[in-house]
Amino acid sequence: MDLKYYHDKINDPLLFIVIQSRRDFRLYANLTRSLKPTAKTFRVIMIFEKAGSICHDPPGNPLNLVFDSKVLVKCPDSEIIREWYSVYPNKTETDELVRWYRNWEHRGNEYLTDTLFRDRRQDLGGLNIRVTVQKENADKDGKIRGMCYDLMTEIARRINFTINWQPLESKVGTYDPKTNTSDGILGKLASNKTDIGLGLFVLTADRLKRFDFSMPLVETKLSYFIRRSNNNVYDFMSYSRLNRVRRGAADLHKCMSNNVSAVNGLR
Predict the structure, then answer these.
(1) Do 72 and 65 meet the contact criterion of CB atoms below 8 Å apart?
(2) Among 30-44, 105-119, 221-235, whose mean pLDDT is lowest?
(3) Listed residue (207, 217, 214) closest to 187, CA to CA
(4) Membrane topology type, per the record (predicted)?
């Protein structure tokens, strides 16, 4: 089975996996070890044709599941369809989702929960999560402050996880294609030295291939302000100096004394 075709696709595929033996299960488990993080959230329906303890109580986390995995499992000796996911690296969580009646008297499905997917995944059980913050989000004493800090602590409170603050990083990070490595916060994420990066990240196509991003909290843009010329015809081919504005209206007014200035909110 080759899942590389799906890695760069926008829509998640729906995979039907039929397990006929322990060997089949081991083969699929080995395959999941090489999947990219985005592929671990594919929608999967797994049907066991032979009864066994693995189907009802999988030991550890053999399928390398994550918190937002979408895996439905049907055992041959049970009418219950369960969903599998993982909070802790070495444990598989199993929740009863649907009762599937196969006899003529009770044909159809009975939903065993009335909560949506996102509502069922609202508790991380106090899991310790490492968070690395960009230095710009800290004051001169190194204490993390601001909207990003407030938002992260509120998320931790709502879905029940413990924040393990890591040493501050001076930059988000850049990718070196020669060494196929990144530095900064992105480097720590790539090397599994941290779990969440907090800072002024710019979403690029290259980064989206290697990292998962949350929805943007603040959107910034690059704007160019061109001073009105005293001449009737403005010479757009003339040399103009670019200045970066970071401190609001005062700096903008100062920069407007030049021919062309830029307000840059990107990193």
Answers:
(1) no
(2) 221-235
(3) 207
(4) Multi-pass membrane protein
Q: What is the pLDDT at residue 267?
A: 38
d(CA 129, CA 162): 6
Alpha-carbon span 76 to 208, nearest angstrom: 39
135 is written with which tokens? 């230095």
CA 105, CA 216: separation in Å to the nearest integer?
A: 51
pLDDT at 72 over 70: yes
Across the strands, what pairs with 267? none
Q: How many CB atoms lie within 10 A of CB 199?
A: 20
Say which DSSP state 13 is in.
P
Cβ–Cβ contacts within 10 Å for residue 84, how many? 20
Spatial distance between the Cα atoms of 157 and 126, rounded to a whole number of angstroms: 9
Task: Name residue, tokens 């307000």.
Answer: 263
pLDDT of residue 146: 83
Tokens for 221? 């843009």
176, pLDDT greater than 80: yes
Residue whose structure tokens are 């209206």: 249
**Bridge partner list, 218:** none
Report the side by side order of strands in the sheet with 43-48. Answer: 14-19, 43-48, 70-74, 80-85, 93-101, 108-111
